[in-house]
Amino acid sequence: MSKLSNNLRRLRTEKGVYLKEIAPFLNVTVGTLSNYEKDIHEPPLDTLAVLADYYEVSVDYLMGHTECRCPISAINREIYNGYTVGRFLELLDRLSVDDLRHLVYVLELFESRTPAHPQKHP
Q1: What DSSP designation does 11 have?
Q2: In this structure, what DSSP letter does residue 3 have?
Q3: What is the pTM of this model?
Q4: CA 68 to chain centre
Q5: pLDDT digit string (tens) for 93-111?
């Protein structure tokens, strides 16, 4: 079975829904959805996008191209002062190994401390 069919079945099971509940949402038959999960057919791109939104993951995750379940809305979320999660990831990708080592050290320091007054992200 493909990663797509496995991911579709697993996500549906995790969400605790039946094929008959999802089919009307996608305007397809239960049989069509079953064929996607059995790797008999692949959904068209527009259906993949709707399924990704429904399960709150990215199309790349559905297809098995990444193990990150983050939906696009999470990637576009602002972290602080105009920095989005996506922009932060792009910056991480450009750092040297030495810079990454230092950054991980700082992140571990933040992770290990217990703030007196937890703050929410802006």
Answers
A1: H
A2: H
A3: 0.69
A4: 5
A5: 999 999 999 999 999 998 8
Q: Is 33 left (phi over 0), alpha (psi -120 to 50) or beta?
A: alpha
Domains of the chain listed by start with CATH number:
3-73 (1.10.260.40), 78-112 (no CATH)
DSSP class of residue 95?
Answer: S
Tell me which residue has tokens 């602002």. 78
The Cα-based distances of 10 to 5, 13, 44 in angstroms read 9, 5, 19
d(CA 84, CA 96): 21
Judged on CB neighbours under 10 Å (0-12, 13-18, 19+), 17 is middle
- Give the 3-state secondary structure of 24-86: HHHCCCHHHHHHHHCCCCCCCHHHHHHHHHHHCCCHHHHHCCCCCCCCHHHHCCEEECCEEHH
